[in-house]
Amino acid sequence: MNVENTVNPIRKVVTMLQKMQAKVQAEGAKKEKMFDQYMCYCKNADTTLAASISDAETKIPQVESAIKEGAARKKQLESELKAAQVSRVEAKDTIAKATALREKEAAAFAAKKSELDSNIGALSKAIPAIEKGMSGAFLQTNAASVLRQISVSADMVPADRDLLSSFLSEGTSYAPKSGEIVGILKTLKDEMDKDLADATAEENSAIEAFDSLVASKKKEIEALTKEVESKTGRIGELGVKIAQMENDLEDTQEGLAQDKKFFADLDKNCELKQTEWDAYKKMEAQELVALADTIKVLNDDDALELFKKTLPGASSFMQVTVSKGVMRHQAFAALKGHKHDPRLDLIELAMHGGKMGFDKIIKMIDGLVVELKAEQGIDNDKKSYCLSELDKAEDKKKGLELDISDLEKAIEDAEESIATFASEIKALTKGIKDLDKSVDEATATRKEEHDDYVETLAANNAAKDILAFAKNRLNKFYNPKMYVAPPKRELEFGQVGAAPPPPPEADLSYKKSGEDSNGVIAMIDLLVADIDKENQTMEVDEKDAQKDYETFMADASEKRAQDSKAITDKEGAKAETETELEASKDSKKSKTIEAMETAKYIGGLHEECDWLLKNFDARKAARSGEIDALGKAKAVLSGADYSLVQTGRSLRGSQ
Question: In whole angstroms, what is the distance from residue 462 CA to residue 131 CA?
Answer without folding.
Answer: 107
